[in-house]
Amino acid sequence: MEYNVNIRKEIFGATLLNLNNGKRVYVTESELESVTQEKIFPDDVASIMPQSEELNYKLTDYDDYSNSFSFADIAFLELTRGCNLKCKHCLNNSGISEKNQINFEGWYSLITQLADAGIQEIRFTGGEPLIFDGIYDLMKHASELGIFVSIGTNATLITKEVARKLKENGLKRAVVSLDGTEEMHNEIRGEGNYKKTIDAIKYLQEEGISIKVNSVIMRSNMDDVINLAKQLNREKISVFIRRFIESGRGANLKENMLSKKDYEYVNEALREELESAPYVRGHYIRLTDEGKHARIELPFALRSGCKAGQRALVITPNGDIHFCGFLAAQGFEPISNVSKIEDWKVFWKDLQQTDKLEVLENNLENYNNQPGVQPTNCLAYVQRYLNGGK
Ligand SMILES: C[S@@+](CC[C@H](N)C(=O)[O-])C[C@H]1O[C@@H](n2cnc3c(N)ncnc32)[C@H](O)[C@@H]1O
Predict the structure, then answer these.
(1) Closest CA to 313 of 344, 346, 343
(2) Is the CB of 215 under 6 A from ligand 1?
(3) Single pTM value for the model
(4) Residue 5 neighbours by CB under 8 Å, 6+ apart
(5) Angle at CA of residue 381, ends 380 and 384, nearest 5°
(6) Which of 51, 105, 127, 377 could serve as a FRET partner for 318 with CA atoms 20 to 30 Å apart?
(7) What is the share, in percent, of the chain residues with pLDDT greater than 90?
(8) Do 194 and 236 meet the contact criterion of CB atoms below 8 Å apart?
(9) Which ligand 1 atom minimizes the distance to the CA of 152?
(10) pLDDT digit string (tens) for 155-194?
(11) Which of 79, 85, 87, 228 for a ligand 1 pocket mutation test, highest count of atoms within 8 Å of Cβ?
């Protein structure tokens, strides 16, 4: 029987991830005991977890705990810098695969190591991950190890047949990029690509793969992204409106980052959608206190809205390890390289004790104290600020 829940033990109890619907909850030690010994979930989360008789969990334990999560929730594996598109705003300058990058065997072994250390989700991304030879086998491998498998994709290569293969190999969620309605999307991503992506969404839905649309908002496409969000809301498709960061090719699109005022405008324009249904969300675009509270009290501060270093790791095609892709794209030094890691559990624990995060977190606080800035929890904004951004 396939695993359907990934349990990672924590200093406070455990993090549970339902491997079918991607829902994550924190439980206390005594609640964990009920789950593992009696197959009983706490009442308030039972509806989003499997039925008792179907429970088959994977559990990762640790010898000792630091005052943080025991491991990252998600690893973003950037399989390649190669891409079939050349989007105008691409933070990674994607388009051409570089030589001497991690190969299939390297990624395969890395997935095994991350699974042993307690990773719960792997997001294959890039570049365009679907051009990586062997991606289906990597997905299957991750899925069999009790990991929630997702992909970040422009989806233009997803035919009916590809969608079926993705499903067969364990893909649970596709995070699909759409940067506006047809004309605007094609202007940014190339002629004909909107239609291909819309068709792909349909094929993925037919296979029962969960869809989340990622939409990067810039001043140049602001109203169009609002229209797209309204359209997706009507179609009951989740959309996450992402902040634009001026890096990679995106550095050519000057003055395109939204100001505090712009975000107020977008929030107002989407007020009805935000209030009526859960489909439209985004950086700085949400109901005010949403997502700020964990289900149980955690013994450490949860940085909501930013996973860098606390809940996520990013691995670039050459094996460099970063807190986040936005920091990587802005030239932030890698934390390490996969070739140097002997024990991922030890690496993570040591990472929580370094002051790298502390420095960034202090800078974040200073940034938020500047008059007139868009308040943020995003550490990459800090880096941008230190680099002389507005
Ligand atoms: C780099 S792409 C890689 C995956 C895939 N090729 C795609 O297009 O979705 C991952 C996500 O980053 C977004 N992105 C690209 N450049 C960005 C930028 N300058 N600022 C913010 N997000 C950006 C893309 O729109 C996409 O949603």
Answers:
(1) 344
(2) no
(3) 0.96
(4) 16, 17, 18, 19, 49, 50, 55, 56, 57, 58
(5) 90
(6) 377
(7) 74
(8) no
(9) 4
(10) 999 999 999 999 999 999 999 999 999 999 999 999 999 9
(11) 87
Q: Give the distance (Å) from ligand 1 centre to CA of residue 197.
A: 14
Q: Is 154 in the pocket of ligand 1 (CB under 6 A)?
A: yes
Alpha carbon nearest to ligand 1 atom 8, residue? 154
343 φ, ψ to 5°?
Answer: -140, 110
Residue ranges covered by each domain of the chain: 5-60, 74-282
CA 30 from chain centre, in angstroms, equals 30
Task: Fill in the amino acid letter for 204.
Answer: L
Q: Which atom of ligand 1 is nearest to the CA of 249?
A: 19
Residue 58 in contact with ligand 1 by CB distance below 6 A:
no
Residue 25 vs residues 105, 257, 377: alpha-carbon distances, Å: 33, 33, 21
Q: What is the pLDDT, as a whole number, of residue 71?
A: 98
Residue 216 near ligand 1, beta carbon < 6 Å: yes
Lowest mean pLDDT among 109-113, 128-132, 156-160, 241-245: 241-245
Among all chains, which residue has been given the structure tokens 């190339």? Answer: 190
Site to probe by mutation for ligand 1, drawn from 123, 201, 216 as the one with most ligand atoms within 8 Å of Cβ, is: 216
Instruction: Render pLDDT for 197-233 as a digit per residue (tens, 0 to 9).
Output: 999 999 999 999 999 999 999 999 999 999 999 999 9
Q: Angle at Cα 162 formed by Cα 160 and Cα 164, nearest 5°?
A: 70
Regarding the beta carbon of 303 and ligand 1, being less than 6 Å apart is answered no
Q: Give the domain 74-282 fold.
A: TIM Barrel (3.20.20)
